[in-house]
């Protein structure tokens, strides 16, 4: 019987093999094991991977001019060399000034800023200067929220979700009041918008539209605020079927009664996570099981008084930070 092949040391495998894979293959590699998933999110690994695969990684920051209220976009890379390859006006190659609505894996969904005409929608890729004009959704409804996800890169397929105000925003069913939102989805496979069944939320539920959505495990997530600020609104964008639900945040939020100074949904190593801050203590909770909605506390940090005051007083702008 032949002896088993010797295994490579993990340092050699991660540093010299996994960092040379393609961006498309990296996602599949993360499914192999928890160790692989953890290592591929490490900042040192990611820096080496970007260098060897010629991948540009960074953030699009959108701000609004105080003079003419126009939106301005700039790119900040984790690689100083990459910063030199982009102009500060990174979306100037588009035919009109635009506002970013959503991003996903290098694709940018944006809309014409000129409100005096019918708004045009675009999908573009800043790294290659490619762009296409999209068909318009039902623009008679004012946009409330948008989100986008890339389902596959080869061949490219993506979906865009758009929530907008409804002609009849309030309804009543079995003595309960509901807030209605129009929901449309654009699928690049069909190259058309499809109107879905209205999203009818309990009257007391409002979404934190002033914070960016989080994408994880085939869904978009927004915090629910006001009456029940300890919940999450999830919209699932499966291949052929879309659905939504509302579920609870970790147990500490159930008993918080507003005692937390700061809370924010984030994506952590491919999973939905929550950062909460009480006084000088910051906790990271991660959803371990999406089906059963099981959360677990992963990390705890003790902040200095100076850092705590900066976090406590931070108010995210309407034009948020995009990855």
Automatic annotation (TrEMBL):
F-box domain: residues covered: 6-52
Pfam families: F-box-like, FBA_3
InterPro entries attached to this UniProt entry: At3g26010-like (IPR055290), F-box-assoc_dom_typ3 (IPR013187), F-box-assoc_interact_dom (IPR017451), F-box-like_dom_sf (IPR036047), F-box_dom (IPR001810)
Name under which the protein is recorded: F-box domain-containing protein
Chain ranges of the F-box associated beta-propeller type domain: 96-300
């Amino acid at each position: 019987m032949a002896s088993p092949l010797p295994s490579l040391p993990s340092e050699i495998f991660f540093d010299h093999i996994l960092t040379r894979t393609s961006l498309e293959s990296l996602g599949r590699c993360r499914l192999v094991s928890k160790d692989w998933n953890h290592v591929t999110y490490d900042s040192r690994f990611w820096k080496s991977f970007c260098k060897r695969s010629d991948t540009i990684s960074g953030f699009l920051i959108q701000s609004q001019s105080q003079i003419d209220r126009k939106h301005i976009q700039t790119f900040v890379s984790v690689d100083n060399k990459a910063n030199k390859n982009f102009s500060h006006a990174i979306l100037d190659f588009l035919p009109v000034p635009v506002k970013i609505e959503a991003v996903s894996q290098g694709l940018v969904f944006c809309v014409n800023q000129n409100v005096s005409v019918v708004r045009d929608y675009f999908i573009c890729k800043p790294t290659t200067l490619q762009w296409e004009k999209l068909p318009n959704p039902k623009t008679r409804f004012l946009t409330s929220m948008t989100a986008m996800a890339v389902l596959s890169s080869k061949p490219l397929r993506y979906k865009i979700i758009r929530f907008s105000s409804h002609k009849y925003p309030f309804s009543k069913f079995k003595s309960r009041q509901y807030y209605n939102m129009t929901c449309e989805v654009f699928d690049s496979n069909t190259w058309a918008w499809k109107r879905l069944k209205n999203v009818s939320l309990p009257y007391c539920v409002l979404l934190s539209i002033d914070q960016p959505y989080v994408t994880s495990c085939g869904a978009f997530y927004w915090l629910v605020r006001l009456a029940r600020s300890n919940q999450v609104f999830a919209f699932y964008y499966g291949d052929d079927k879309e659905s939504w639900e509302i579920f609870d945040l970790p147990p500490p939020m159930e008993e918080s009664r507003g005692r937390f100074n700061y809370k924010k949904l984030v994506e952590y190593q491919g999973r939905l996570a929550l950062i909460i801050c009480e006084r000088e203590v910051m906790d990271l909770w991660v959803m371990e099981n999406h089906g059963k909605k099981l959360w677990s506390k992963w990390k705890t940090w003790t902040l200095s008084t100076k850092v705590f005051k900066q976090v406590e007083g931070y108010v995210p702008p309407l034009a948020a930070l995009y990855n």
